[in-house]
Structures are given as structure tokens and as C-alpha cells.
Specification:
81% of the residues lie in helices and 0% in strands. It is mainly α and 424 residues long. It has one domain. α3 packs antiparallel against α5 and α8 packs parallel to α10. The longest helix is centred in the middle third of the chain and has 36 residues.
């Protein structure tokens, strides 16, 4: 089941990556690596932070185990009421926080992008406010996809992200020439809406309208107990991303975009392979844990940890040997070629570790253990910040050191916590 669904998801991920390649190539050639693209990339930081704050309520790692509940007879109970409760809760809370961020952002924008000029900062505030709609749309989409994953319906789940990329590409080609950087943001919002519309199709036949707008505070309390450490993990992850963004803006124009372009090359590997396997594994591992088949649970985790680590190593070696060709194909003959290649080295060193970290994380989530993942992320974040600041005088390489140190620390801690965990 895991292998079959992994192949299915990997197929859709390949299409998603190809669209991502088109998107990044268009950004590089139509917009160019420089101040405008830096503003566009930085504008995602606060919307992503809002998404991270609520991610525990909308992501499969928490929601699928929460929805997978058995009755006394050992049968999985109807989860539509639980889905209705958390959907309404998320929509209300995310909207409220989105408004708060949009109103207050002028007071702290300069801390997020300290390297921006005053003019860049004004534009950054404007486009960030506009982009606050995106995490709400993506959050609702993610919730619906969790319900689909629990039922092992992965086709619509795989198609939905394609709509997001198509919207962004539309914005680059048709809206950017007319509206500038705001046109890029319009494309993002259009893509998020298309993705939601596609994912809604997975609810056909479930009769969700029979239970909407059902709401129970009991369900929210139950999810809070499970998701609170997960929320901490998501917030830590986004704070780390915000830190890397802020740090990159101090390294000069184009540094942030070059850093992100390099990151997306290795993210393509994790998206196609790691995320496909972890997504397909989650409902299986959750069921193994609920039914107390711990030996089988451990066997599956060990098997895929080894597989992902080996694939990550092979991918790193292959990408390194082809890096010049890849950068040219993906981003054209950009003046930032050498800087992208420089940042790419750090991500390639970290890739095998990141591949294994992802599966350790999902295995702990399926066992309803979010605390261990929080501890590993907290420690690795502190180490990343320390390494970046302690080597800041060396310039761009300090960012590379931070990425590598973070991955080593995260892998070491999460693997130790998983090994020592008692599941029985």
C-alpha cells in the first residue's frame, strides 16, 4: 500500500516540480534576481508564519491521527464531525490573526527585512498584506486533503498543488507586466483558490453538508492536546525561515533569491520522493500504532529511513556533478549563477539528513508524539542561529554553515529520541 501510493504521489510530484521549474525559470528571466524578486520572496514570510501557527490544525501529521479513531469494536468511527469542528475553528482563528498581522506589520517590518531600503520596505508591507489571504485558502485545502488521505484517496490530493503553480505562472506571465510585484501576488492568490476548488472535489460522496456547520469545543480541546507541541514545531520552523530570510537580506541584493533558488533544487528531491513516501506512510503507520502492531511499525520505519538516506546521498552526488547545467537550465544565464551554486553546496550536504529527518518526524507524529519533534527542532534552531551569527564575519558562507549545522543537529536529536521512545 505504501509503495503503490508513493509511486502515485511521486508521479504527481514530478508534474508539480516541472511546473515549479517553469515558475522559477520565469521568475529568473521575467523578474530577474534582484530587489523586486527579493521583495516577492520575503513577502511570504509572515503569511507562512500564520500558516505555521495553525498548521497543526490543518496538516496530515496531526489531523490524520486525530481523525483515525476506533470505537470499542475496533472500527474506525465517522470523522466528518471532527473535520467540521476543526475546519470552522481554523477559518475563524486564521482570519482573525491575518487581520492583526495586516494592521500591525508596519511596526516590525524592518526587523523582518533589515537589509531592505525604505522604498522596498513600503512595497514589502503592501504585498504582504495582500498575501495574508493565501494561508487561509491553503489551510482549508490542507484540511480537506487530510480527510482524503485518511480514506487513501490520493489522486485529487496529488492534482491540487498543480493548480497552485499554474496560478503563480499565470501571474508571472500576464499580471506582472501590468501590476508589477503586486501582479505576482495576485497570481499566488489565484493559484491558492484553484487548488482549493480542485481539492473540494475529493469530498464528493461524503455528504459533508449533512454535518456542516457542526462545531464541538470538545474536539478542539482533544486536538489541542495532540497538536500543541506540533504548533511549536511549525512556529519554530517559520521563525527559523524568517531568521534565514532576514540574515540573507543583510548579505546584499540578490542573496535572498539566490539562497531560495538553491534551496528549491533540493526541495524538488524531497517533494518528489520524501514527501510522497511520508504522505503514503502516515495513514498506514497511524493504523499500525492504533492497532498496537508495534513490531511492524518499527520495521516499516527502519526500512524507509534507510531507503530515504541512500536516495538522498545518491541525489546529492548526482546534483553536485551536474550543478552548472542544472542552474543554467532552471534559471537561465543569470548573473547570480555562482552564488546559487555556492548556496547549493550547503543544501546538498544536508539533503541525505533532511530525507531521513522527514520520515523520523512522520513516524513520531503517527504515534501521537509531537514533543520529540519539537525538542529536536528547538535545539537545531538554536544551533543554526548561533552558527550563523558566530561566523557572520565570513559573509555568505555563514548561511551555508547554519543550514548544515541545523540539519546535523536535527537528525542527531530526532533519531536519538525515536530510538529511545517506548511505544508499547
Amino acid at each position: 500500500m505504501i509503495f503503490k501510493n508513493s509511486v502515485l504521489l511521486a508521479t504527481f510530484s514530478i508534474f508539480s516540480v516541472l511546473l515549479g521549474v517553469v515558475r522559477d525559470r520565469l521568475l529568473s528571466t521575467h523578474v530577474g534576481v534582484g530587489p523586486i524578486l527579493d521583495i516577492y520572496n520575503a513577502s511570504f514570510r509572515l503569511p507562512d508564519f500564520l500558516y505555521a501557527m495553525s498548521l497543526a490544525f490543518v496538516t496530515a501529521g496531526t489531523v490524520v491521527p486525530f481523525l483515525t479513531i476506533e470505537n470499542k469494536s475496533g472500527n474506525v468511527i465517522d470523522s466528518r464531525h471532527r473535520l467540521s469542528s476543526i475546519s470552522l475553528f481554523f477559518a475563524g482563528v486564521a482570519s482573525l490573526f491575518g487581520i492583526i498581522i495586516a494592521v500591525t506589520i508596519p511596526f516590525y517590518a524592518h526587523f523582518i527585512v533589515p537589509g531592505f531600503t525604505a522604498e522596498q520596505t513600503v512595497i514589502f508591507i503592501s504585498v504582504t498584506r495582500l498575501l495574508m489571504v493565501q494561508p487561509i485558502l491553503l489551510g482549508i485545502t490542507s484540511l480537506i486533503s487530510c480527510f482524503a488521505q485518511m480514506r487513501n484517496h490520493f489522486i485529487i490530493y496529488g492534482i491540487a498543488p498543480l493548480g497552485y503553480s499554474i496560478g503563480i505562472i499565470f501571474g508571472i506571465i500576464y499580471l506582472y507586466p501590468v501590476y508589477g510585484v503586486h501582479g505576482l501576488i495576485y497570481g499566488v492568490i489565484i493559484g491558492a483558490f484553484i487548488s482549493l476548488c480542485i481539492q473540494l472535489w475529493s469530498l464528493r460522496g461524503t455528504k459533508m453538508l449533512e454535518v456542516l456547520p457542526y462545531f464541538s469545543i470538545k474536539h478542539i480541546k482533544e486536538l489541542f492536546k495532540l497538536s500543541f507541541p506540533r504548533t511549536g514545531v511549525n512556529i519554530l520552523s517559520q521563525l527559523r525561515t524568517i531568521f534565514f530570510t532576514a540574515f540573507a537580506t543583510t548579505l546584499g541584493p540578490g542573496a535572498l533569491s539566490s539562497y531560495l533558488f538553491a534551496q528549491r533544487i533540493t526541495e524538488a528531491v524531497t517533494q518528489v520522493i520524501q514527501q510522497s513516501i511520508t504522505t503514503a506512510s502516515l495513514p498506514v503507520l497511524s493504523k499500525e500504532f492504533v492497532e498496537n502492531r508495534i513490531h511492524e511499525y518499527r520495521r516499516v520505519v527502519k526500512q524507509y529511513i534507510i531507503i530515504l538516506g541512500a536516495i538522498g546521498f545518491f541525489a546529492s552526488v548526482t546534483i553536485y556533478s551536474l550543478q552548472d547545467l542544472l542552474i543554467t537550465v532552471l534559471y537561465g544565464n543569470t548573473p547570480a549563477h555562482d552564488l546559487i551554486a555556492f548556496f547549493l553546496i550547503g543544501f546538498l550536504i544536508a539533503l541525505p539528513l533532511q530525507m531521513m529527518i522527514g520520515y523520523y518526524t512522520i513516524s513520531l507524529y503517527s504515534a501521537k508524539d509531537t514533543k520529540s519533534v519539537f525538542y529536536s527542532n528547538f535545539i537545531s534552531t538554536l544551533i543554526a542561529v548561533f552558527v550563523c551569527y558566530s561566523t557572520q564575519q565570513f559573509g555568505n558562507v555563514s548561511l551555508v554553515y547554519g543550514v548544515i549545522a541545523m540539519s546535523i543537529a536535527n537528525f542527531t536529536v530526532v533519531s536519538l529520541l525515536y530510538t529511545k521512545k517506548r511505544l508499547l
